Amino acid sequence: MEGLEAPVGGSPFLEEIAFELAPGRFVGLVGPNGSGKTTLLRAILGAWPRSAGRIELDGEALDALPRAEVARAIAVVPQQVGRDFPFRVSDFVALGRRPYFDAWGRTRGEDWEAIRAAMEEAEIEPFAGRAITTLSGGEFQRVLIARALAQTPRYLFLDEPTAHLDIGAQLALLDLVDRRRKEAGLGVLAVFHDLNLAAHYCEELLLLHRGRLIARGTCEEVLTPTAIAQAYGTPVRVRRHPITQRPFVLPLHGLPESPAPGAPLVHVIGGGGTAASLFRLLVGAGYRVSTGVLNLLDADLEAAEALNLPAITEAPFAPISAEADAALQRRLQEAAAVIVAPVPVGPGNLQNLHRAAEYAATGSVILWEPRGLAPLTDHTGGAGAPILSALRANAHRAGSGDELVALLQRLIPTAAPSGG
Amino acid sequence: MPLRERLRAIPARWILLGLAGLLIVVLLFGVALGPVHIPVATVFSILLHHLPGLEGLTPVTWTSAEETIVWTLRLPRVLLAAAVGGGLAAAGVSMQGLFKNPLADPYIVGISSGATLGATIVLVAGWNVTELAIGSFVLELPELGYGLMSLAAFLAALGIVGLVYRLARTGTGLPLTTLLLAGLAMSALASALTALVIYLSPQQRASIFLWLMGGIQSSWTAVGFVVPAVAIGALVLILWARDLDALSLGDEQALFLGVEVERRKRHFLLVSTLVTAVGASFVGIIGFVGLIIPHMLRLVLGPLHRLLLPASVLGGASFLVLCDLIARTVLSGVEIPVGIITALAGTPFFLFLLVRSKAFGGEFH
Fold first, then answer.
1. Could you please report the per-residue DSSP string of A15-26?
2. Given an 8 Å threshold on Cβ–Cβ distance, is A78 in contact with B252?
3. Strands A236-240 and A247-251
4. Across the strands, what pairs with A346?
């Protein structure tokens, strides 16, 4: 049978772990620092003690194979390689052919071809003649990839291949590996630190925690807030990447606790990202926060959802419908105060401002006018002017976070805010 | 560094041919020059004359004294020097690659102190006899004592390295740091024992001291042992050159590149030890060759062992022949221990390279 079956057991630190890597699959190994990702790779390859489990490489026991045969099947791009000697880049890549040499160490035509193709794929020909000791971390990483590709392996192990690379270089490097996977059926097992990068490339994920496999499956199955919180000890929200539709992990670290259910409700009218910073501020000050009406895909809506705030929504680019307006009115009856962010006012969202102006006649409305944002402006061509002037006449103003929180505490005396 | 770039652009085979040519020239001069100068043409004729089947080819135009000087005194001497120098350089390259440290030398795991201890014991015990008495029959064997000393030095060197190896190896492998530390400790022990033996027998101090500084003899027996040992050892090391490349990146890297790491490490250690010990047992401890020659050549040729290893063998051979030539000619009537010359000649050049490469922004490997 084809594939790499790795039941790893009898190993210090690692618990029993079993998984398969089929040709052409991209499997990601994720987990916090010290969870055993690198150790697992090393255990499979025989560089870490392991006494139980028969690891099978395309149906044969890996331990019984000569090392050269293992190296012809599996190439490794390690996390770090000491650069004690100044090998020329082309010579270093040629070391990838070591498992193919006969006893006399002769280089044959197919060796040269593999070396040339690997250097071309990794785009390292421009510095082929330089010493590896003179390369930057990113350049050397590409040289390591080229050496692994020159090995023409059936399986490729990547141990945090992108740890020292900028985002563009990370994607370029993983694309390169992914291309080999699609074209040559390379099975890839890659250690990732960045869960979103992992979700972008992997068809399957293995989540390790303290040497144990705590989740295994598709990215959707593994990247759940519960599993991630258990492994990494930090709260996250898992969304979908707007374009690729892959799971996308948003860290929630440093975000305030949810306020008490009985806390006063503050409704925020915003849009286009003008209110996003308010949500965290208000939740942190101990208020329940709601927002709307916002169009779907609005930046403020994304922010509200990240904080799990209730929002009244409308279809993208559509004006506020009667149902949404009714929902807004119900919400405003419940609200102890309304905050209006400096949103550009157009026909689509004028109804929001109209309801705010109504509310201002009897309740507390605060205009949020932070420095750096243009104040509330009318773009309706005149229809909004009376509504805005009515609002301005009755509303309070706050220009900074401290000012806003102080104002709210004065206006809603029953509030017992915590934190902030 | 333009010189280095230019040198690295030369195809490997030309560099090796050049170094081989240099060695031949140095060997010829080594035979021709000395207190008695013999023209190179005469040297050629005498050498040809001694080749089997070619005796009659050249008319005998030289004196028998010249023939003795060339064939009995100088030729074995330059050949021995070349073999020892080549062996030391090959072992030096191997140790530097194995220990991933350009400052390792062939004596790093205790060969020198072991060989010294063995030789010292034979000297002090008075076993370096030149005749063997069986009943009333006395057999004159001028090389027997020398041979016994060599044998003792060789066995003691192997014994120390074997002990170091046993101490350092674990169930699964051979951690190089432990090997290095065990080598240091055993060297210190053997040196202490040597010092004790020397202290207890003051009359032998001078000869032990001479042995310690290294000296090359005119002995065909030594040539018979050292030349084949070094030739075979160096060939084997050159065959394994790619594994040394992989090992110089670290054990794990080598493993992932398909090298049977622990076995290969043992092989390198064993062959390097044999090559070094066989030389040390006949000529004593000659420092700097195994450190400086590989280092210098790596600086100009790069670290690829397929080129560096054979180049070091040829370079080390030429270097030691030259040093020995200086040792026996620079002061008339007095021969300076060759170890002093290798240090005196090698160190300034080494330091020059060091300073120069520092000025060019490091990368001194």
1. --EEEEE-TT-E
2. yes
3. antiparallel
4. none
- CB distance B258–A99 less than 8 Å? yes
> In CATH terms, is domain A4-251 a member of 3.40.50.300?
yes
The pLDDT of residue A148 is 96
Tokens representing residue B189 in the block: 């022990």
pTM for this prediction: 0.79
Containing structural domain, residue B127:
2-34+83-359
The predicted-structure confidence for A195-208, as pLDDT tens digits, reads as follows 999 999 999 999 99
Judge whether B279 and B83 are in contact, CB under 8 Å: yes
B278 φ, ψ (degrees, to nearest 5): -65, -40
Q: Distance from A97 to chain B by nearest Cα, in Å?
A: 8
Q: How far is B313 from chain A (nearest CA, A)?
A: 19
Pairing of strands B131-134, B137-140: antiparallel
A95/B303 Cβ within 8 A? no
Confidence (pLDDT) at A32: 93
**Is B29 part of a structural domain of the chain?**
yes
Residue A253 DSSP one-character state: T
Q: Note the pLDDT tens digit of each residue in A100-120.
A: 987 777 788 899 999 999 999
Given an 8 Å threshold on Cβ–Cβ distance, is B239 in contact with A103?
yes
Least confident of A105-109, A374-378, B351-355: B351-355
* DSSP reduced 3-state for A123: coil
Output the pLDDT for position B128: 66
Q: How many domains does chain B have?
A: 1
The SS3 of residue A217 is: strand
Question: What's the topology of domain A265-411?
Answer: Rossmann fold (3.40.50)
- Nearest-CA distance from A193 to chain B in Å? 22
CB atoms inside a 10 Å sphere around CB A384 = 21
Q: Which tens digit of pLDDT belongs to each residue from B102-143? A: 778 888 888 888 888 888 888 888 776 666 566 667 666 556
Contact B255 A47 (CB under 8 A): yes
- Which pLDDT belongs to residue A379? 86
Beta carbons of B90 and B272 less than 8 angstroms apart: yes
B96 Cα to chain A: minimum distance (Å): 10
> Do B77 and B33 form a contact (C-beta atoms < 8 A)?
no
Residue B245 and residue B242: Cα distance in Å, rounded?
5
Cβ contacts of B245 on chain A, cutoff 8 Å: 87, 91, 95, 98
Q: Least CA distance to B9: which residue of chain A? A: A129
Q: Is B77 contained in some domain?
A: no
Give the amino acid at A337.
Answer: A
Q: Average the pLDDT over B202-225 and give the result.
A: 81
Describe the crossing of helices A322-334 and A350-362 by its angle, rounded to 10 degrees. Answer: 30
Residue B201 carries which DSSP code? -
Residue B364 has pLDDT above 50, yes or no: no
Q: How far apart are CA A44 and CA A42, in angstroms?
A: 5
Same fold? A4-251, A265-411:
yes
> Which of A84, A91, A151 has its CB closest to that of B365?
A84
SS3 content of chain B, % helix, strand, coil (to 5): 75, 0, 25
The CATH code of the domain that includes B250 is 1.10.3470.10
Helix H or strand E segment including B152: helix B144-168
Rg of chain B (C-alpha set): 21
What's the number of CA atoms in the CB half-sphere (13 Å) around residue A190?
Answer: 31
Q: d(Cα A165, Cα A163) in Å, to the nearest integer?
A: 6
Question: Which residues on chain B place their C-beta less than 8 Å from a C-beta of chain A?
Answer: 8, 97, 100-102, 172, 239, 241-243, 245-246, 248-250, 252-253, 255-261, 298, 302-304, 306, 363, 365
Query: Side-chain half-sphere of B81: how many Cα atoms within 13 Å?
Result: 35
Q: In DSSP terms, which residues pair with A5 in a beta bridge?
A: A20, A56
**CA neighbours within 13 Å on the CB side: how many for A293?**
29
Nearest CA in chain B to A144: B253
- For residue B330, tell me if it sits in a domain: yes
